[in-house]
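Notes from hallway chat w/ T.B., transcribed later so I don't forget. T.B. wanted the structure written out for a chain they're using in a teaching module, and asked if we could keep both sequence and structure tokens in one place. Agreed to drop them here.
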Amino acid sequence: MKIGILSDSHLKSDYTKEVIDFLKEINCEYLVHAGDLCIEKNLELLESSGLKYVCVFGNNDRNLFSLATKYNIKTEPYYFKIKDIKFKLMHLPYYMTPDSDVVIFGHTHMFECEYKNKTLFINPGEVCAREKPLIECVQLEIKENEYIITRYFKNIKNTKFEKEEYIYER
């Protein structure tokens, strides 16, 4: 199972489209957005991706509250399952308890991944390239006995994504 994870799109719908297209190209089956979508265009891009997706409100998404039902936007922390894996999704890193198999968060604009007490914590970094000139996303591949986290990033002036891989035994 391959899951594309992104966060902090802000007003950069062109970068969001590029990331979603890339995650589809590398065969992600699901998309998870950890908030700060900021504009309806970013929600439209998730919706039109053709993939199953889920997203949560970020601290900059108040103007999107009326669109919650139309675009399946959840309040944090949001718990869900894909197959037998339990996820917790949030924007703000306030609910960092190990009460799920995978905890996904955003807000800091910094990539993080750590496997601790049988819980995988992931922050995919930022799509919007606000804190640094990088567009970032993550592919989480879940296999029977391991998590493979691939961080993809590219300078806004480059055309190709580079990658770093992290593997944890489940």
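Follow-up for T.B.: DSSP finds three helices and twelve strands in the chain. Might be a good example for the class.
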